[in-house]
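Researcher: Here's a chain I'd like modeled. Treat it as a single chain, no partners, no ligands.
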Amino acid sequence: MRKLVIFLSILTVLYSSAYSAESSRSFFEGYNLMQKGMYSQAVSKFREAIKESPEYAPTYTNLAKCHEFLKQYSDAIPILRKAARLIPRDTKKIQRHIVLLGEMKQVLPYISKGDIKSAMPVLGRVIRDPYKNSFIRLDALCYLSHYFYTINSYDNAQQMAETAIKSYSLNFIPAQTLYEYADVLKSHGKNYVQAVKIYISLGQKANSPYSKDDLENLVAECYLGIAKESKDEKVKKAMYERIVIQCPNSRYAAEARKKVGDIIEKVKRLKEDADVQFDIGSYAAALPIYRKIYTDYGNTDTAQYAMYCVGKCLANSGKYKSAVKQFHELVRKYPKGEYADDALMGAGCLLSGLMKQLDLALKEWAYFLAHYPKSEYADDAYFDIGRIYTAKKNYKKAYQAYVYLLKKYPDSPWIRLVREEMLKIKRGEYK
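Model: Modeled as a single isolated chain. Structure tokens:
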């Protein structure tokens, strides 16, 4: 959302009628410097832009923002007065903002000494500043967030920080505010997911006072917290894998590697047990083990295999309708998975064979060929289509399916049977 706001503000600049081609270059150079946090350099560029196009309002508002960020309130005030004349609709808001700038200037000595309590009445007014380009509002929110954090009033600290994050780009928010906010989320709110996002953004922040090693440990702590609180094995595995991949140098990486190994070994044992039961024809015993693999360990490589095997167990147990449903569920969940075409092959064969649902089988094969045209089972599908149309006495379509199979798959093992079927159709043996 913040990127969208920045983009829209740039569009506003582009379509304003008040700037020249030369001023746009200086303005955009200043704007880019400001976005990077290079406020002193941005001030120089904005002042150049004013000389080139003195009636262009956005230059004044952005120049004032830079002075505010640098705590140069006295320099910001005359610039804002000029902006108020150029933007009549915002005059009252800018005038109110100028008053608040004066108040902030008065309480800065208290704030610099860490005496936020004495500045509290002014900060309370500043956070309600109606001027949309106010940087002192951000300052006030961050001062209050830090104050509440130091006195263990975490709900208030979180509220101040979240208001700042919703209103301003993360580029503008001090690293300390973000760090303390993330700590509140992690240690007191158990909102590990949001804390991870903040820690990662801190790692990307220019001139961050926090080391990458410290931030990596904190991200790993969040993933570990999610894993320990979750009762879902696949969530646990996913979190341990994230620690191993994203935080390989953290103090928790060794523990995570062991956990991932333990889970993989457990899944391997379950698969071996299920396969043994399946191979001896004990499908009722194999079925719940396969189900446990894909429900409890859905993020493992074995999950798709287990789903497919459940379908085979159901089919071999005579539960054809349930087997087709299982195969379809596998394709829905893993449309590009290793066993997707196997599952559709199983469903198609059941429908056309044991279930005698010929029309449904034709639809199944049409879907199969449309989505998996390069499958190793494509020639099987065309051969079955020919057989289905033969059973429906639509010999023309049967013959067409066989002709296509001959041309497209000359090395198919069905070629001899296809030629025999085509000869029978030509001779009229099926009529």
